[in-house]
Amino acid sequence: MPRALWTAWVLGTLISLSKEGAAEQASSLSCDPSGVCDGRSRSFSAIPAGLTAAVKSLDLSNNRIARVGGGDLRKCVNLRALWLGSNGLHTVEEDSFSSLGSLEHLDLSCNRLANLSPSWFRSLSALKFLNLLGNPYTTLGETPLFSHLPNLRILKVGNNDTFAEIQAQDFRGLTFLEELEIGAETLQRYAPGGLRSVQSIGHLILYMWRPALLLEIFVDLLSSLEYLELRDTDFSTFRFSETSVDETSTAMRKLTFRKAKITDESFNEIVRLLNYVSGPLEVEFDDCTLNGRGDFDPSVLDTLKYHSNVETLTVRRLHIPQFFLFYDLSSIYSLTGKVKRITIENSKVFLVPCSLSQHLKSLEYLDLSENLMSEEYLKNSACEHAWPFLHTLILRQNHLKSLGKTGEVLLTLRNLTHLDISKNSFQTMPETCQWPEKIKYLNLSSTRIDSLTSCLPQTLEILDVSNNDLNSFPLILPQLRELHISRNKLKTLPDAYLVPVLSVLRIRRNTIHAFTQEQLESFQKLKILEAGGNNFICSCDFLSFVQGRPALAQVLSHWPEDYLCDSPSHVRGQRVRDTRLLPSECHRAAVVSAVCCALFLLFLITGALCHHFHGLWYLKMMWAWLQAKRKPRRAPRGDVCYDAFVSYSEQDSYWVEDFLVRELEHSQPPFRLCLHKRDFVPGKWIIDNIIDSIEKSRKTVFVLSESFVKSEWCKYELDFSHFRLFDEKDDTAILLLLEPIEKKAIPQRFCKLRKIMNTRTYLEWPADETQREAFWLNLRAAIKS
């Protein structure tokens, strides 16, 4: 009994842990409100539990889900997209997808599904995309897999290792496919008609290392396939064998060889393959290798029935190991008579022989980008009667260095209208140039030119000078409709009178700070202005103009996301449309006027207060005090020249001269008095005279009267005497009251005088003559003390 209980407990624990693991897996899914769930690379070992009808897209790729059970997705009835790629999936139960009637996208690629079952897809009538690539099956099964998928448009099947056979019934039930991709690198058998059951295929991508079965597949697809792309095919051993074709007209319009290996012999066979295509054909060689020297068999090429059907030829990144032993290509001249478009990119082309150029009588478009063309070899290529109908020539990123020579070399191309010579190193532009007379489009972008001259043709309608070092646009181009001048150094829009019919202006990433209403209105025919990425100064005028005209959004391309403020600093990075400045920033004149008015009013009030409270007088006294403080505190005893310095008002000079001087200087012993009228040094600053006279006198006699109180110089003299009185603790001041003065009548600014009269004894000039003798005796005694 205890053992049974122990077993039950262990089982219960395991069940509980499994439920917790399932809940944890479901919780690790990230789903947004629209029902899109992302479970990529989450280490799931099973379909997460708890999925509901709310899930519309489920990505479980790059996990470790090995099995899909019948009930794992049963509740996902609204699921439209399911990714189960790269999981190691090896088992899918028959009814796993039975409830997914709305499923449109199913990816089961890169798993371990060795057998495919039609029952998986029986309920998926809405399916449009199905990817079964990279699974280790050898065939697609004994019964048609896709007969219940009427809406399927993109199908990917096969693998690189084990897929060996395409059977007659594999694609039955499919009528139209936009894209069919088949990994058939190890294909060994192809049942005739295996792909013919599909009535129409837009694009077939066929991985086929050995092209032994290519001709059979090719013939089956002639009437139904529009575009055949062969990838990773080695044509070194490919040999063409005659076969009967009933179709007089074919649907194929494009044939691409991608990463193919070709020899001189196999090239002849490929050209013979093209003989089965009756209509105009585009042929593309992308990243291919030609192991040969161009020794093609002209006898084979001359027997072709439709050798002139190739109208478009594209060659990109063609590698020719024996490039410098290559022939002159004269053997393929017969194939070029009706070719209208040729693109040869990044294939080290440095010369197109004149004879080949003359055979390209129907050529209208030639792209030789990313090659080694220079002016000297271009002259041979564009010889007389070469490319007579060429209207578009692209020489982007070659070795052209002289703009003048390039234009002169191309004069033979009388029908040339479009010329792209961008990404060449011209650097400078001559003053005059010659160009084909019909040229309308010129691309000079990324050519490092730093100025524009009258070298440019006046017939231009479209000019691209982007990504250079231009800081101005000074040219008059009367027919110019489009100007592309982005990524330069322009500080303003070009003047409208230079380009009167301009309708498109692209001037991104320059150094433009703003544009005005007047500038835009001057371009009368402007429909598109692309000016984003500039360093806009978001001034009030600019913001008012841009934000106040919603119609600008129809003219400004990439508005508003590309139009950002660069300054002021506090709005840097904000959209011009959303930027708001403070009223003080937008009304600076008013703010400055208000501040000036306030300062002027403050000045007036300050002046009035200073006048009322004698502020100027106090300032003068402060300065005088500072001057006094800088002087030595007391003159040396040998420098004292006077017994007393007399401070008096000019209105009291009669009394000082007639009474004071006579009584003191003519007495026995005589006193020597210092009077400003007599003893001040001429030319010396008056304040220095006052300071020196007080310091050279033992006493200072103040003759007080109403006039004294009104005299500022007397006030200075009183102050300096007061400095000595308090700073040196010395009794030097003698007050002589010439006439009665009410203390209340003394102004408040004479605070020291009021204080001295309150604290010190002073002499009063007696009106009675009998008392004057005593007055003089007391004065003499005060001076001597």
UniProtKB/TrEMBL annotation:
It is a single-pass type I membrane protein. Residues 1-23 form the signal peptide. It comes from Catagonus wagneri (Chacoan peccary). This is Toll-like receptor 2. GO terms for molecular function: amyloid-beta binding; identical protein binding; lipopolysaccharide binding; pattern recognition receptor activity; peptidoglycan binding; protein-containing complex binding; Toll-like receptor binding; transmembrane signaling receptor activity. GO terms for biological process: cellular response to diacyl bacterial lipopeptide; cellular response to lipoteichoic acid; cellular response to triacyl bacterial lipopeptide; cellular response to type II interferon; defense response to Gram-positive bacterium; defense response to virus; detection of diacyl bacterial lipopeptide; detection of triacyl bacterial lipopeptide. Belongs to the Toll-like receptor family. It is found in: Cytoplasmic vesicle, Phagosome membrane; Membrane raft. Keywords: Cytoplasmic vesicle, Disulfide bond, Glycoprotein, Immunity, Inflammatory response, Innate immunity, Isopeptide bond, Leucine-rich repeat, Membrane, NAD, Receptor, Repeat, Signal, Transmembrane, Transmembrane helix, Ubl conjugation.
